[in-house]
Amino acid sequence: MENNNEIEETYYKQKAPELIKKLKLMVDECLKIVGEEVGEKLSSDKKKAVVQGKMEAASSARWALNEIDQLERELNPEKFPEIEKEKKEEKVEKKFRPEDWAK
Hints:
Layout: H1 4-35, H2 44-75, H3 81-95, H4 98-101
């Protein structure tokens, strides 16, 4: 019988491509918002709200792009060999932390 980690990893790898597609759609929608013109006839309060909305959309797009990048690197480590090296170094760092020796 498979252990829970193997089952979760398989499910994760099955759903990650779908998530990537949806995040790409999110980025496209956010970029549409960022690119819209600010109406000249709006009051200063409404202009401020529009600019804040654009800033939030830009921030959301950046977040989604980072998530897409991370997921793609996890799913295709052969295309990003530096990731495997970083993971190995991270495991060593976690395993041999000086603060743990003092305990």
